[in-house]
């Protein structure tokens, strides 16, 4: 097996209903020089067996079985094991176009960018498109400061990891916070800050499944605390980042503070409701 150009990290927890479709789309990539790091995160259904079955079918798949530690811990293991010069992430209940990683990899090299992104199609359980996210009308390259401003002004969508590839060297010194949700909000801006150029392609290549039973679609006090902490970490980043102008920093600080206040109010309401 040749050395991989991209390491694709897929955490999987109780994903038996979706995993086959996900891996079919990943293993059919037109870019063949990939490795798939599949982390079974303590599943209690047949996900573990499915992972092993797929590893026997495709030598590019490496399976890790671990106790349930959450998606961040699984991603951290994947990053540590990655052998490719770029890293991509796919959620086990999602799927991708077969050209996604080739298109992202080629334009990243062509434009000499450390990060490449594509658009997202949010789909229903019946495969019906619901919403288009992070889409661009044309291919374009941006500097990291401009992209950081857009990302930090956005609540969450631009922070998604799964519609991007990253040069592996960006992850030096960066880990995903374990034991919480909204790990993307904690981490993506740090990767952007280290990048030499970010390129967007005008294609929607990632299919994000909207599930009513997903943990991220249910508001709980714990989730609100995680969201608050993620935005607090963003606030500290804005204060410390030296490449923003005074006006840019002030606007971003104000935006983040408003988001913190709004989250605090929502948390208090949830806490009272659940008592």
Please give a structural write-up:
- The chain is an alpha/beta fold.
- The protein has 2 domains: 6-214, Alpha-Beta Complex (Spore Coat Polysaccharide Biosynthesis Protein SpsA, Chain A), CATH 3.90.550.10; 221-274.
- The chain has 8 helices and 10 strands.
- It has helices spanning 19-27, 47-57, 71-81, 100-110, 144-153, 183-194, 221-240, 246-274, and strands at residues 6-12, 34-41, 61-66, 86-89, 95-96, 115-123, 129-133, 140-142, 164-167, 198-209.
- Strands 1, 2, 3, 4, 5, 6, 7, 8, 9 and 10 form a 10-stranded mixed β-sheet that branches.
- Helix 5 packs antiparallel against helix 6, helix 6 packs parallel to helix 7 and helix 7 (221-240) runs antiparallel to helix 8.
Secondary-structure topology with pairs:
Blueprint: E1 6-12, H1 19-27, E2 34-41, H2 47-57, E3 61-66, H3 71-81, E4 86-89, E5 95-96, H4 100-110, E6 115-123, E7 129-133, E8 140-142, H5 144-153, E9 164-167, H6 183-194, E10 198-209, H7 221-240, H8 246-274
Distance between the termini: 56 Å
For the sheet with most strands, the description reads:
10 strands, mixed
Q: Mean of the pLDDT scores? A: 89
Query: What radius of gyration results from the CA coordinates?
Result: 19 Å
What is the CATH topology of the largest domain? Spore Coat Polysaccharide Biosynthesis Protein SpsA, Chain A
Gross CATH architecture of the largest domain:
Alpha-Beta Complex
Order of helices and strands: EHEHEHEEHEEEHEHEHH
**Proportion of strand residues:** 15-25%
Quickly name the level 1 CATH class of the largest domain.
Answer: Alpha Beta
| Total E-strand runs | 10
Query: What shape does the CA trace take?
Result: globular
Helix proportion range = 40-55%
Low-confidence stretches: 267-275
**SS-based structural class?**
alpha/beta
CATH-defined superfamily of the largest domain:
Spore Coat Polysaccharide Biosynthesis Protein SpsA, Chain A
Number of helices: 8
Total separate domains? 2
């Amino acid at each position: 097996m040749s050395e991989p150009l991209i390491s694709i990290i897929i955490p999987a927890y109780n994903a038996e209903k979706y995993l086959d479709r996900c891996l079919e789309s990943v293993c059919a990539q037109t870019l063949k020089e990939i490795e798939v790091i599949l982390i079974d995160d303590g599943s209690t259904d047949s996900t573990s067996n499915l992972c092993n079955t797929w590893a026997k079918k495709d030598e590019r798949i490496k399976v890790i079985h671990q106790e349930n530690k959450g998606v961040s811990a699984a991603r951290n293991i994947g990053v540590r094991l990655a052998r490719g010069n770029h890293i991509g992430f796919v959620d086990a209940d999602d799927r991708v176009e077969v050209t996604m990683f080739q298109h992202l990899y080629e334009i990243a090299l062509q434009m000499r960018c450390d990060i490449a992104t594509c658009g997202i199609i949010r789909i229903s359980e019946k495969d019906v498109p619901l919403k288009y996210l992070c889409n661009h009308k044309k291919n374009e390259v941006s500097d990291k400061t401009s992209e950081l401003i857009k990302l930090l002004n956005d609540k969450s969508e631009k922070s998604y990891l799964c519609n991007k590839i990253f040069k592996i060297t960006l992850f030096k010194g960066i880990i995903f916070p374990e034991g919480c949700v909204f790990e993307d909000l904690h981490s993506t801006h740090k990767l952007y800050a280290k990048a030499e150029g970010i390129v967007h392609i005008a294609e929607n290549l990632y299919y994000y499944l909207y599930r009513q039973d997903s943990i991220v679609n249910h508001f709980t006090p714990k989730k609100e605390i995680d969201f608050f902490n993620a935005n607090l970490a963003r606030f500290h980043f804005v204060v410390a980042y030296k490449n923003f102008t005074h006006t840019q920093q002030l606007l971003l600080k104000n935006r983040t503070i408003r988001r913190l206040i709004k989250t605090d109010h929502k948390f208090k309401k949830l806490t009272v409701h659940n008592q």
